[in-house]
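Input record, target 12 of the design panel.
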């Protein structure tokens, strides 16, 4: 009986880890999409600042992607440990 309960809890933890990883990836995709859209709008308004806007966009997108990667790694660690 106890083994069945522990197996069910382990299964739920696995599902929770997968859902957490999926939410992290979806959030990162939405965030990077908004960054790109805002950067394109800013470049359209001020074409002379294209280089500065592009470099800032790449830096912020890398930070968002790094946080998402960290979240996925934490979810995978909770899945396997």
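The sequence produced for target 12 reads:
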């Amino acid at each position: 009986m106890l083994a069945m309960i522990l197996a069910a809890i382990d299964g739920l933890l696995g599902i929770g880890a997968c859902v957490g990883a999926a939410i992290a990836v979806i959030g990162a995709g939405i965030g990077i999409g908004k960054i790109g859209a805002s950067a394109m709008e800013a470049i359209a308004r001020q074409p002379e600042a294209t280089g500065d806007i592009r470099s800032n966009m790449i830096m912020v997108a890398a930070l968002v992607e790094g946080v998402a990667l960290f979240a996925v790694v934490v979810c995978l660690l909770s899945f396997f440990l």
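Residues 31 and 64 are 7 Å apart (CA to CA).
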